[in-house]
Amino acid sequence: MRVLSVIGTRPEAVKMAPVLRALAAEPGIDSRLCVTGQHRELLDDVLLFFGLAPDIDLDLMAPGQELNALFSAGLHRLDGVLAQIAPDRVIVQGDTTTAYAAALAAHHRGIPVAHVEAGLRTYAHHPWPEEANRRAIALLADLHLAPTPAAGANLAAERVRGRVFVTGNSGIDALHMVLARCDAAPDTIAGLPVDRRLILFTGHRREHFGAPFDSIWAALREIAERPDIAILCPVHPNPRIGGPIAEALGQVANIRLVPPLSLVTFVRALRRADLVLTDSGGVQEEATALGKPTLVLRDATERNEGIEAGLAKLVGSNPARIAEAAAQWLDRPPLLAPSGVYGDGQAAGRIVDALLDRAVEEFVPELRDPLP
Ligand code: UD1
Ligand code: UDP
Q1: Which residue, of 9, 27, 65, 110, is most buried by count of CB atoms within 10 Å of its CB?
Q2: Tell me: the pLDDT tens digits for 217-255?
Q3: Is the CB of 121 under 6 A from ligand 2?
Q4: How far apart are CA 138 and CA 145, in angstroms?
């Protein structure tokens, strides 16, 4: 069976890396990888880390590119790739423009689509544009690899066409792989005082551009007034984030803006962190897997498992609410342990079993599940 995986952004590369490795190890599968290059530096960094060599690179990223330009270029160029490779199946991951363009291009050519990380939903309008992408892919796919039982239940309730399997999130497989390559040395971060508690912040969502990000910057400024903390902010390369954050926080004491961290350095920063503030999906999952208290800077999340496990709190973008929640968890840290609600490190194997029509032993979440 010839399988074409299509990825374009950092989180797709992280979460597909274990799947691509498992596909490569299957004698019955001819696995090809196409990267759209929706992200360039972020993607290349992860490809390098996991030793992934794309068969095709469309190099689509262009400065200031709007979603429709990216989507239409992706759809057009991917059609040529499908004609050239003639895969029996296309695999997409998540909710990005790349994933939706690849799923639609395959659908137009009658090629079956497998969707990794299917079924996450808020059913709210504002996770724009990603939730619409993920739901549209559910209409096009005939193999839905749901990361959690809740995501599987969403797909069942929507009566999607084809088969649904609960596999665990392959991002947790990737985390296990990264941890295996982190040395046992203490997680000190160059330039950060060792005697301060570390808050790790990431933010990139389009739903936050403008006023919500201004509120988040105000919250970080308020938290930064505490003398016992340092806030580390790896800044997403999207210029619509880099410019505003530098202006708002660049000169604030106790806040350190840095370029995106390599995956290993980022995971080490997560391990060292006392508190995580983020709007990222993957970071939420990794923080929960590592037992790190996390404030989710969104009004709604498609990842409720971390909240139900008591490791994450949904705090929106209101500065007072964020600062109060941060103070609460810094002053009275909850007793938290690593949680297996998002995955057990075995998702890729289950995904490959499903692709090959073998029996799938589905993922059963464990509330407490120390990492290896
Ligand atoms: C995209 C995904 C989002 C995912 C996020 C992960 C969509 C609609 N959104 O976000 O689901 O959570 O990626 O990070 O697909 N840039 C660079 N270098 C890079 C990457 C980005 O310079 O390596 C700049 C470019 O100017 C680019 C901009 O950032 O145009 C935004 O990139 P884009 O792919 O549009 O990211 P998001 O939509 O913010
Ligand atoms: N990440 C990284 N370096 C950073 C910030 C994040 O390697 O400076 C990793 C993180 O560990 C996770 C992924 O990037 O695996 C999450 O990507 P992002 O937040 O861009 O997207 P999302 O998960 O929200 O779609």
Answers
A1: 9
A2: 999 999 999 999 999 999 999 999 999 999 999 999 999
A3: no
A4: 10
